[in-house]
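yo

u said u wanted the structure for the complex thing, so here. seqs first:
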Amino acid sequence: MEPVKVNILVIGRHEEILETVLRIINKSENWIALGALTDEEAIALFEKQKFDIVLLCGGIQEECEAVLRDTFKRKDPEIIIIQHYGGGSGLLSNEIIHALSQRTSLKNDNA
Amino acid sequence: MERKDFIRKGLMGTGMFVASASVGSVIKNDIDELKELDVIGFNHLPNTESKVKANTVLHKADTRGHANHGWLDSHHTFSFANYYNPDRMHFGVLRVLNDDRVDGGKGFGRHPHDNMEIISIPLEGDLEHKDSMDNVAVIKHGDIQVMSAGTGIFHSEYNKNEDQDAKFLQIWLFPKSKNVTPRYDQLTLNVEDRHNNLQQILSPNADDEGVWINQDAWFHMGKFDKDFSAEYKLKNPKNGVYAFVLKGDITIEEHALNQRDGLGIWDTDSISIKANSQDAEVLLMEVPMSI
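structre next:
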């Protein structure tokens, strides 16, 4: 059976850091990441395709984050939105694996 | 992944991330992009229960994550890179406690960080630091280095000496405020001041002892004679304290600890410390428990 692909939308204001984060995520065979530098790009991507996780990187102001969270949750109540700390650091894989395990636990609890 | 593949994935079906594809230089990440290690998880480790009391976690040295990349040999108290243990994600805002050995002349190339308070404490040898704010510096045993990564910073850390290992602690705290202006600082401490004393090395206040960071955290270091005892009073009883034994044997509260053991305690306003060996050394990290 083919492993399930995980689609990840990464939003960050720092271009080089965003590029690093995307490259690291896309090194994983089963993770597919797309990036957006602006809220408009992010929302357009989210409207266009299904994502499993939204990763918020640095530089996003609180009010923008609130709008993004609200927009994504309204369109897909099951979407997982997590803050990425560290800028493509050694925490990135951990954050995604942890989010996926929490989602699985949640789904099992609701089943 | 090759760069062309990255670009293909980044652009796939959208055209939204065109700008990134035009960036000429690829910034390496020196942890995630090291050679692939086989193990992702923690089942290869003696996976003891961390919580030993309602308000206490114990992380014995040999239960830490371990990654040996050759030039870099790292022990992770909390989940990091290829080591993932959901029981050990963080202690309050303390997210990373890496105990690193770096071969002579080797190190971490230029790589980015954002939104993290990064503290380095050299234990042996010298590290050469360079960053995107034009700081160039060497830190050595007795120094402490802090970086508020904030909106984004690039840095490199290399073992300054070709013929000697460098050993240092890499400590990351979640920031109190996100997206602050990046900042670098380092300080040479008088290590004599920690003999039979808890020497403050870090605080949230610029005018206090030690370096300061963007978090309500206080760090202290002590080096004790055998049987010396002390009490640490928390600055804020809502915080917790994570003790990491650098050398020797130390009892904290009723828990006998050995070299590189870690003990986290919360819901208390003070902790008792007693040295069970000569020249025992400890690092205390008082941190907020909520992120």
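Strands of chain A lie at 6-11, 31-36, 53-56, 80-83. The domain at 6-110 of chain A is CATH 3.40.50.2300 (Rossmann fold).
cya
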